[in-house]
TrEMBL record:
Segments forming domain KOW: 129-156
A Pfam family recorded for this sequence: KOW
Protein name per UniProt: Transcription termination/antitermination protein NusG
Entry similarity comment: Belongs to the NusG family.
Domain of life: Bacteria
The keyword DNA-binding appears for this protein: no
Stretches assigned to the NusG-like N-terminal domain: 5-116
NCBIfam families the UniProt entry points to: nusG
Gene Ontology CC terms: cytosol
Alphabetical UniProt keywords: Transcription, Transcription antitermination, Transcription regulation, Transcription termination
GO BP annotations listed: DNA-templated transcription elongation; DNA-templated transcription termination; regulation of DNA-templated transcription elongation; transcription antitermination
Function comment: Participates in transcription elongation, termination and antitermination.
Length: 186
């Protein structure tokens, strides 16, 4: 069989069910001959770090809610199989009625893959964004609202040592990057 060029397509899925669609498609690719036609299933997402009750929580958020990206060769029954997968609405198509699924342009693919790579490469807690001598404001905990200066960065523990003035005395605090924000220059 001559290997034709695989292109990227977009499947519209029920919002919130993107991961389930990916799981089903991955199982079909592994267990059926669909693997000959579909090489990748991707849901670009980003990690969001928040603090709840003093604890750091990492959540994943889809960049394109309701969409699943696939790299495939659409021949024969492949379109039918993909669009009839549970929780899939249909392919992203042209505006005219009955039009074929439209592949993404190379620039769109590079942007989508680039965005996914940037997010994976990004430092998830922002620790490396801070410098010794920088002024920060504490946002969480009993010292919230106090401002201080970063005096040390402990890369092993991923903590910042910040000196704040309490009752006129310098007091060192050991904080996570998510517990402080940059103090705007006055």
């Amino acid at each position: 069989m001559a290997e034709s060029k695989k292109e990227w397509y977009v499947l519209r899925a029920i919002s919130g069910k993107e991961a389930k669609v990916k799981e089903l498609l991955d199982a079909q690719i592994k267990n059926t001959n669909l693997g000959n036609y579909v090489s990748q299933v991707l849901i670009p997402s980003e990690k969001i770090v928040t603090t709840r009750n003093g604890k750091r929580v990492v959540k994943e958020r889809n960049l394109y809610s309701g969409y699943v990206f696939i790299e495939a060769t659409l021949t024969g029954e492949v379109i039918h199989e993909l669009s009839n997968t549970t929780n899939v609405i249909d392919f992203l198509r042209g505006r005219s009625k009955g039009s074929a699924p439209e592949s993404l342009r190379q620039s769109e693919v590079m942007r989508m893959l680039g965005a996914a790579d940037e997010i994976n490469d990004a430092n998830e807690d922002g620790f490396n964004d801070f410098l010794v001598g920088e002024h920060v404001k504490v946002t969480v905990g009993p010292f919230a609202g106090f401002t201080g200066e970063i005096v040390d960065l402990d890369s092993e523990k991923r903590k910042l040592k910040v000196e704040v003035k309490i009752f006129g005395r310098r007091t060192p605090l050991e904080l996570e990057a998510s517990q402080v924000e940059r103090e705007l220059a006055k």
